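Residues pack. One example:


***
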Amino acid sequence: MTEIDTSVPHSARIWNYWLGGKDNYPVDEAAGDAYTAVFPGIVTIARGSRAFLGRSIRYLVAEAGVRQFLDVGTGLPTVDNTHEVAQRIAPESRIVYVDNDPLVLAHARALLTSTSEGATAYEDLSLYEPEKILEAAGETLDLSRPTALILSGILGHVADHDQARDIVRRLLAGLPSGSYLSLNEGSRGTDPAYEHAQDAYNETGAVPYFLRPVDQIAAYFEGLDLVEPGLVPVPLWHPEPGDEDPRPIGQHGALGRKP
């Protein structure tokens, strides 16, 4: 397995730190603190993205009747991972996680717990190989049945927007009618302070993450029927009782159904 370098900051570990996780090192905490010094709202962004993921999964299971999930670009395990949220409502749910980060692979065992009725699997594959992802997922999921594709904050790492759109198209092409795309990404046009902080971070030599205008995020849903309220800042998508007063942030998300 590839050696894990703890001498340089790592985006998955920094994200984990912002979410309140423990799978990070002093170098990640330092980078995370430097970012929050410029833009304290990044913690709200990280937790808002995670909360959207949970709400979209609950909708998919409870409202749409989905029982299969393909979570690509999984990131480090935290609280309420996809399988935990889904299987809490429907224990027979089946989940395939995909990532090709050696750090995530090292923690994959935390993602492989499952109810006895359901199943979870982890595939060490690249986002840039959609057909291989679908082939591997088919060993755990029945891809003739509706499946939810989850892309949570991963496409911003793809520098070319057309390439990112192509990845989404190819993944969805392998899923049947009635499948869904749950996607949320960092956005431009809502929070200039976030944009400034992220652009500065990208110039440090760290693995960049590109914020995109909302119309470019909307393009990922081309050909899909959006669940109301459509593509919105993530706190505004199906807020639940007890959520803090939802306000727009620079992270947009939506749920789309394949006709």
Observations:
- The chain has a mean pLDDT of 93.
- The longest helix spans residues 42-62.
- The chain has one domain: 11-235+248-258.
